[in-house]
Amino acid sequence: SSDPYCIVKIDDEAIIRTATVWKTLSPFWGEEYELQLQPGFHSISIYVMDEDALSRDDIIGKVCITRDMLAEHPKGYSGWMSLSEVDPDEEVQGEIHLRVQVLGSQGSRRLRCSVLEARDLARKDRNGASDPFVRLRYNGKTQESTVSVVKKSCYPRWNETFEFELAEPAGEKLCVEVWDWDLVGRNDFLGKVVFSIQGLEAAGQEEGWFRLWPDKSKPTEHDLGSLQLQVKLRDETVLPSHCYQPLVQLLCQEVKSGCQDGQVHLVTLLDETTTAECRQEVAISLVKLFLGQGLVKEFLDLLFELELAKPCEPNTLFRSNSLASKSMESFLKVTGMPYLHFVLGPTISRVFEEKKYVELDPGKVEIKDVGCSGLHRVQTEAEVIEQSRQHLQSYLGELLDAIVRSAPACPPLIRAAFRQLFQRVGERFPQHQHAKFVAVTSFLCLRFFSPAVMTPKLFQLRDAHADARTSRTLLLLAKAIQLVGNMEPAAGRAKETWLSPLLPALQQGTARMRDFITRLVGTEEDKGEEEGEGRPLGPPPAVVKEGLLLVHKTRGKGPLLAAAAGKKLHFCLTGEALGFGKSPSRIGAIALGDILAAEKVEEKSFGSSHVMQVVYTAPGGQQETAYLQCKCVNELNQWLSALRKVCGNNPRVLRSYHPGVFRGDKWSCCHQRDRTGLGCDRTRHGVTLQDWSDPLDPTVEAQRLFHHLQGVTGGCGVSVSLPCPADAPLPEGLSRLFAVLGDLESCHRRAEPPEPPAPALLQLQT
């Protein structure tokens, strides 16, 4: 078997590492990521790796998805893709800066190519760099810069010119190849650019940065398996915020006006015309939009009212994936993740640390030897089940204790939403007062607590997936929480009779859950009395990211470097500064306005690929760079993403940087000798990971809703069914919506850039 995990690369830069699934050839990850990319990215590559504790991890295969492939699937690609073999000649990256000219007159013409520099080349040598040189081919002739091999650099500068006699007719192609020179063995291919000469004759000269392409793909000789994935590219133009104000105001007005008899509500239109595939996405956008407008409580209450107006049974309330259910689920994740971690964190950590064997199903019980040396005996099935019941009941009791005590710690906005839901259901089913408790637990337990217990990694409760034994314990614990949330544990036992040993604990848990819900949705006066109990009410401290990082020793005199170079410090990033200290208590800080860049560092600089650099302005005004070691690629990119988000509006951010370190008298990346000179690579401020803790961006959410409403109102051929005669005038709300969407479409047409002129020099991929 293998121990597979995946590395996700954007244009050959590692962004994500999934968890390892141990000892299997059919792994399931179930991990979901959302990234914001640079506008000009080219491809997404997913490498399936086999983790090895004693040697370098093996590459099983890869899947490569180009931007053009994603453009062919505007609704996203979903399916199985065959893994291809990883060919060293295919593993290229980076760009090369060229100037190509046609010189001379008819009959005596020359083709001149100036090879200036390259950046971000692939690392082919063990030292984490390459020794690049260039080779040019034209009309059967070859020239190469064997005397200009740039040692130990992925950012070489050649400034070398090559000339060829121009063939007549000039139908040949010019091929510029980059190679890694090796003293022993075969040189490694680093990529190539192929040009057509015909367009160049008219232009005379072309200069720019050109992406390096791999050699021609080689067919895979044997089956390496397949990878199932879902990928969706959202490539949209977001207009200035004032363009979306009419749409936002219209939606807010609809929410404020509430449900009115005989009126087609825009929220109803959204609910009825949203497909199951995009309902979660629409729900998230609506929740974030109304959170930013301070109307999320009113929005959810309107959804509850519209949902309860439909024919429904008290025992099936909010069990479907309607817009109301998805919106409430999204609302809990956006506003309640710190609360979730506070409640579940200790119990989840205990389950992972103890690794107890827990099994109640007689068909799955494993009998094993017990006892001390020389006194072995075989446990009976009844003994194993009883021992499992005790373990599971202990975990369940601890978790219920945490839930019951958590009412004061629950964010006030969540409590207010549940209070509205509780009252609405009680009014709708006055003869079934039990239904209002089930309505609350159907969200809190079945859609929030239970999924997080079952898969804690997907809710950021753990860094890795559980092993098989722990996973089974978590599944049984999640099932127990579901039964408590159903408020009728006997009904669950009827489906799975082997849960009967847990029934007394479930019945006691149901009574405790009922008392907890009563306190959670208590009146404002009750809520005020609870403020002195447990954790205080209110949002948690505004900490964006925190953790231990190693500070590498380098030349510099900034406050961070002077604090503890060569030691580990505790870093805490807030909305104001990057603080650091030997413990969570801060001894120093860098204001966000002084942070100029947060970027990765070349592997060869410190012997690790998980080092980032923070470029900042020291109190004396000089520019300093701190090099911070992370433990893995995920932590590295999480820190980079967090720093880029909080510093995104800093007008002093750098546009270029040095991926290496200044040692001796030159930069290790490009060998420049000017310590304060311009960097040799572009900064990547726009590449970030999206998560639930991101600050609200109403402009982006409004654009996403506009894109969806375009399809609803006919932009994508979707017909809208209205409960009114065909010849009757449109309701006022709908007519206003059509007018607002029409204005937004006009704004988008005006904002579209003109078609670029056809390039004189044609770049070819072969």
TrEMBL record:
It comes from the Eukaryota. Keywords: GTPase activation, Metal-binding, Repeat, Zinc, Zinc-finger. Residues 278-486 form the Ras-GAP domain. One of its GO terms (biological process) is intracellular signal transduction. The keyword Transmembrane does not apply. Residues 1-81, 92-210 form the C2 domain. The keyword Nucleotide-binding does not apply. Residues 542-648 form the PH domain. Gene3D superfamilies: C2 domain, GTPase Activation - p120gap, domain 1, Pleckstrin-homology domain (PH domain)/Phosphotyrosine-binding domain (PTB). One of its GO terms (molecular function) is zinc ion binding. It holds the Pfam family C2. This is Ras GTPase-activating protein 4.
